[in-house]
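Reposting from the mailing list since nobody answered there.

I have sequence plus structure tokens for a pair of proteins and want to know whether others read the tokens the same way I do. The first protein:
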Amino acid sequence: MAIKFLCRGIAARRARSSRLCIFAFLIFMLMGCAQQGSLLSGPNAPLGVDQQTGIIPAVGENSQTDFSSLDPAQAGDRASLLVTNMTSTGLVSLDNKLQVRPQLATSYTATDGGLTWTFTLKPGLMFNDGSHLTAQDVIYSLNRALQPLTASPTASTFLGAIKDADKLRSGQVQTLIGDSLLAPDERTVIIKLAQPDLSFLSALSNSCAFVVKKQLVERYGSDWTSHMSEGGSSGPWFIEHSIKQATRYIVLKPNSHYYGAKPRLNKAIVTFYINAQTVYRAYEANQVDIAPVPASLMARARGLGGSQLRQTPGLLTYYYALNYLVKPLDNIKVRQALALAINKDVLARTIYDGTMRPTNNIIPSGIPGYAPTLTGPDGVTTTMGNEQRSRQLLDEGLQEEGLTRDVFRNINFEVYSGIPSDANIKDEYNAIRTMWKDVLNIDVRINDVNGAKYYGDIQNTLNNPQGLGIWRLSWNVDYPDPHATLAPQFGRGTPNNAQNYGQNSASDSSQQQETQAMMAQADSIADQQQRYSRYAEIEQRLINDVAWIPLFQNVKSFVVKPCLQGWNISALDQLPPDDWSGVYLSKNGACAHNV
């Protein structure tokens, strides 16, 4: 409007108004850019389009040596999830603050007391090949994720609230389409739940709820992800070339049919690395633009210039699990004694150099429902343990069981240090063994085994008194709700309940089962704050029972090249789909690909 009036004034006074109007327009635009912090000059000015290639590391887990699966329903490791979160989307997503936001949906409502959820899709949705994405694609994808043949490791957890999902998984019904999954028209999705569940909306942000293209799956079967370049992407990126398994990197290009703001990068190369140490060395060699920082390399990261080191609380809880079917670990006093003999502050300070935050909580801070006032076992208020009380509890527990301290020599304490071995993990479990020996006068032998044996042994500990006695694991919250941590790990009959909580014959097993019943009822509470309060009560009971011995919540430490702008991932290690439009490479220092 200002240009229009300016040109009218000039036209009234001069014959060559058109050229002056153009000149005035250019001056006006340059002034506007200057007012907005111009990207035309300065260190944060973008590189040219042909230089906008980001090199992003994908870090493997455990004994993993490649992307495990690019099928959103099957992806479960960090490396695969990084790619699936770039190429696929679902009805909703989580923003940078872990709040639920519409994604494929433009709106959603809950009716029937929370039993029925109705989603209205955005108009004109397409896959990356330009074909239409409709409500039928959404319900097909949800139904497929729950099918037994899909073998999704996550669908039963995140989509299990859908009515008759358990019957589909067990083979009692063949499909949920037309039953609890409905698409009355191309833009309407209706999902019916077995019972009201306020955590369901957050659960839908998991990759197992992402949309896949039916025609591609039916054409290529289990190998369909090798052909995603042909048009199976609904997210801001698509895979540029057809790939096979055992690839070391994946090249992605912006999806021109993406419904949201398009990526500013011209290309993203996601490169697989076996562990964080290798990635950090690649970062120092200018081979990647970002990298996690292992605790052993924190001093080097702190010495980097340009504010490259960034730290933020993560959502990963590290813990030790105890098998409730193994004596004397079925005694609550013995479990509390083992927990209170550990000084978590010493471990965090001497081994992890600020990359871990000691905690007594099972649920990490940073998500709705976190309860900071909960105490540790037996009411301890610090993370330093209580040596005197731990000795007293162990004496009482062993006396109740008619056992001596020698019984601990027969307990299978199994760990996996990784490939190559992680010195921090070794230092950690050896320090815990020493604390138990010094404080409690018990000797627990440690078996460090390979990854395949370790995870197989944990799986075989479910309902098995001959299984592992003690093991170390971590749990990363997949969506920001207390349900995401407590229900999968400690719920009645859940496959992750290898510690056999509530499914044992200990003297306090009835109280454990009462806690499980409270857990099953919590998500039907209509008022969100009341639901969070109930979960806090449940968590305190689990802590008192030593359902886990939680040690740390991770502090996410990573380095970012000064040239990379807009890289603001959430605590879930995810960049929200629409946030890719703010990521670009600037002239502020050398990037990985232009050194």
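The second protein, same order (residues first, tokens after):
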Amino acid sequence: MSDTWWRNAVIYQIYPRSFADTNGDGVGDIAGITRRIGHLASLGVDAVWLSPFYPSPWADGGYDVADFRDVDPLLGTLADFDELVAAAHGHGIKVIVDIVPNHTSEQHPWFREALAAPPGSPARERYIFRDGRGPDGSLPPSNWESRFGGPAWTRLPDGQWYLHLFAREQPDLNWTNPEVRAEFVDILRFWSRRGVDGFRIDVANSLFKDLNEPLRDVVVIPKGSGLEDIAANPDHPHWDRPEVHEVYREWRQVFEEFDPPRVAVAEAWLPNDRLVRYLRPDELHQAFNFEFLRCPWDATAYRRVIDASIAFTASVGTVATWVLSNHDVVRPVSVLGLPTGTDLNAWLLSDGAEPPADVELGRRRARAAALLELALPGSTYVYQGEELGLPEVADLPAEVLQDPQWERTGHTAKGRDGCRVPIPWERSGPSLGFGQAPGWLPQPPGWAELSVEAQTGDPGSTLELYRTALRVRREFRADESFAWDEKYDEGDVLAFTRGEHVLVLVNTGSDPVTLPDAEVLVSSAPLSDGTLPADTAVWLRR
């Protein structure tokens, strides 16, 4: 692959605890990924992105990191990691790892040192400590709220408060501190020297905060994403501060030290006009396209997002990314089987019963959406289990939930465990081939027929659809040309060309539409009578 391999790659996200377990403890591990690398090779992906595998107390699924330069013993060793990188590279698969720069675990040596040190000490300056408001300092320093519910401040016995935009166990780092900046530059070099090809940057827009006293309160948006927060607070005190771009310019220089240069993709819930600032030629390479992820099953909405995504990224010389799901959101098979506008949090709280999802419709639409995103110019991120058509496990019992949102919100948000259930590999066994014991989250009985074993060789399966689509995609992916087709693109039908010969049609409506006379390369559902059925996509060669 060239140095610009990422411009048209398919990147497969692995949540390590839920991919494959080799030692029978019910938790996926690094060796399990290595053992199953053949699946990724046969699928045809270009890279894998690993969610955090670092030493962690697992208060937030591994995103509370206690040591950024090692592997959690629960998941293996650095030697296991090196074997995985070698195995992936042996199959031509790049490796991207998660970097979590906004916060550490409360068990990180720096934070332990800070707790033992007095207010105003150098150890506390690595984090964000403040005195409280009110005559006795008993009120939080600001009204900032945690993403997981409740105040973003926790008070210590000595009276000071520390900031955590996420769980209490995840204290935020102070990015105005030179030690913090130097530490992460060294972390990037550490993993790059071990052969890592790139980095996914967790909450990339959150590093800097406006800490000028008095701290500014914000307009609180209940359960809002960064998109809603920025709309309500354009000069937000802790999202998308301009100083963050200095860090990414420095990081880009680090990436360029290596041959080939390392790449980076940002997780940043921002509108396009602000997101592209992170993608300027001297900063990061890509950013996740959350507006596409949130798009309803509607051709007009897709046109708007696709046009904006391509235009904005082209304005800074990069390409758009396309993503339908990840480890933080409800799986698309379920979302697309629910009425548009369904409150997904309320739906999860009802154990997926109110309203019931039409899984057959959702899987049909998810298959079509996969062909849509894989045909668009740029790179596509696929979350483990998408290729199997897995639905959300909405009815996980309360006693097995581990997402901190469940407790932090007083049981008013069920959280993200339903998309993190271990994936099925085989039709039988205590965890359907995931391992020799039941997995850390229970799998639904119906998943046996969604396993890799059950779907392999079945031409109508979602797995074989992905394998075919990724194989065909290689024929035209390097050509970044894209144009809406004047004849067929209208109403409920999306139609566009890739290169000179590939025509893509996606029918988001309820009525079949007539197809042109052309060779069918791949379709998301059977075609008949020369028509494209509802909720179906097709790639044609003409």
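Reply #1 (J.P.):
I read it the same way you do. DSSP finds 16 helices and 18 strands in the chain.
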